[in-house]
Amino acid sequence: MSHLDPYGGAEARGWDRPDQPTQLPWPEPDLDPGTGPWAGQPQVGAERYATPTAQFEPVPGTAGLLGHEEAPTGQIERVPAGVGLDHEDAPTAQFAPVPGEEPAAEQSPSGKRHRGRRRAGGGRPPAGPPAPSPGQPPSTGRAGRNLPAAISVGLGLGALVLLPLFLYTPSFLLVLAGAFGVGIWEMSRAVRRARAVVPLVPLIAGGVLTVTIAWFGGLDALLLGLLVTIAGTLVWRLGDGPANFRRDMTAATLIAVYVPFLGGFAALLAASPDDGALRVLVTLVAVVLSDTGGYAAGANFGKHPMAPTISPKKSWEGFLGSVSAAALGSAVLLWLLFDVAPWWGAVFGVAVSGAAVLGDLAESMIKRDLGVKDMSNLLPGHGGLMDRLDSVLFAVPTAYLLLVVLVPAVS
After folding, report:
1. Is the pTM of the predicted complex or chain greater than 0.85?
2. What is the DSSP letter of 14?
3. What residue ranges do the domains of the chain occupy?
4. 363, 390 in Cβ contact below 8 A?
5. What's the CA gap between 233 and 194, in Å, rounded?
6. What is the pLDDT of residues 266-325, one digit of tens each?
7. How far apart are CA 72 and CA 69, in angstroms?
């Protein structure tokens, strides 16, 4: 049953409407063929416009898909068997090439289509690796970082550490305080990924206090500074209420131990009378040799992953390169600077290298647990400052304990 037209009386609408056109109640020059400029022309009825204007051949097997047995399909080339209906592979109309634009090849020379790349065709070039933007560094190394920027920043950091250390050793304390303050800030930002909010002010203040009193008071003062930092953070955090208190204090204690306490051993090394700068030097050289030897050996010979779930790029071959380079360099350096037997220097290098690798793995585990790649983007080619201090923070306590035994300080 058809609905009645409220504006046209009781006449049926839709598919029940009669085939004869309805006479307009008033003459319309533009529509009524009996009047206006179309007077005398053959009357165009609804039947003429219902006839398809072009002859289309139906594609076999498609009858009834559109609800009509004779649905027009047009002259379209059939898709060959095996070709998907993805928008990249669908046939397109043949357009004339744009002037000045040459059509690209259909496939790569190897005949394989790489994942994530479009197939060339129709004047469209194949999509390759994205071109670097004008402000982006052009090249990266095997580690996925910009090696020229990483080397430049590494040399700058080395100069920032060694110049105050040898020109005026007490100024090295300012370098340590600034470095650990930045490290605490980066760690506090990173743990927010785990919804932990740590009190930043008492942590930075306590970290600077810990390093300072360790410089003048020794190992006992370092332990006292750690306790004061944790206590101050606890009192500060109590003012924010009991919500998430355990999680926030756990993260704050981790940061206090990881950054200012472990790093405070560098202040103990530098504060050693007469040869404090040399103690820091041999420790840093052992760490640098460990990182360099591990990178060279791992990049060229690495086949057996060391800790694939924590750091997939580290291999046992790289670890062997780290230990060998640090042992050889430390054996020569400690023999020249402290008159220590070379084999004791090699033991020192092996121990410092092992601690540096453990420190690197520890921070990799923290970053993987937090879901971050770098602690920050403060240093081009390196990530954050903590990404450079990870090896040093585990190495300086080891070096301090070994040098106390191998090279007793002379008051």
Report:
1. no
2. G
3. 152-271, 274-411
4. yes
5. 19
6. 999 999 888 999 999 999 999 999 999 998 999 899 889 998 888 888 899 999 999 999
7. 9
